[in-house]
Amino acid sequence: MSGWLFIIFLLLLGGLLSTLGDLLGSKIGKARLSIFKLRPKKTAILITIITGGLISASSLSLIILVNRQLRLGLFRLGDIQKQLQNSRQILIPLKEEREKLENKIRDTEQELIQLEKSLFALRSGRVVISSGQSLYVAEINSKNTDEIEMQIEKIIILANQYTHNLVNPKLREVRKTLLLRKNHIDELQKTIEGGGSWVVNIKSVRNVLSGENFVYAFPEITENKIIVSKGEIITKVPLKKEELSRKEFGEKINLLLSSSLAEMKRRGSLTKEIKLRSESLEEVRDFLKENKKTNFELEAVSLRNSKTAQTVIVELNINYINS
Known about the structure:
- The chain is of the alpha+beta class.
- It has four domains: 3-75, no CATH class; 78-125; 128-224; 227-321, no CATH class.
- It has eight helices and twelve strands.
- A four-stranded mixed sheet has the order 2-4-6-3. The protein has a four-stranded mixed sheet with strand order 8-10-12-9.
- It is rod-shaped.
- The model has no long low-confidence stretch (mean pLDDT 80).
């Protein structure tokens, strides 16, 4: 039943019942009937009241019978409110999760935008500092808190100067470009105060473009230990008699030095290159000019004890191999 028809029906029903009640009250009044020992006038009023109650009861019954929503609202209102409250309680953590997810999506979008910019800048040659690039390396060894603070401060100042020169080389005035988190510096100091010899490596967090105002970095601390000892053979490569041309010999030397650098990195060295004593290269060449009819083995031999942050210096050594 449509709403308008339902309203018209209720109006007609109410009018009909009220008319019947009025007629019934009038007849009872004229007949001077008495109920419950009441006077005829009061009896007529009572009948009119009962009739009005019947009108309301019949109207309400009809509404409840026809309208399911009203029926549920009257008899299950408490349950519905309880369910609604429970639903709201469930929705609270879901809303929080949604907000976290939206924030994560926004952060990811920003990272993607930054990555696109970095890729574009990388292709155009505008990236001056790569993600994870070492900005400054220094040895530090002390148990005195004041000395440690001074050394860390000096390291940060020098790292900032180096970073500034990379990012804004045209600006003569050195600005505060390098940013490190305070808790990282506190952890760094706490580790050093525990004793021992350490190497501090300031590294960039992300790719940095030329002209940027700030460079975010973090300190990496490594135990300062001897990586290679004096006289130790780091790596060796075979050199066959058919590989004695200048080009092939040069390739073997490059392979030997690259392998030595990889081995130093594997052991924990922070060095960026392997230095070769140039005289040893000439000595090997002179030796090979006189001995071309056999196979050899080239060795990279360390010339000193080298610690974590120190450059490794090697010389070439050559040995015969049985054909």
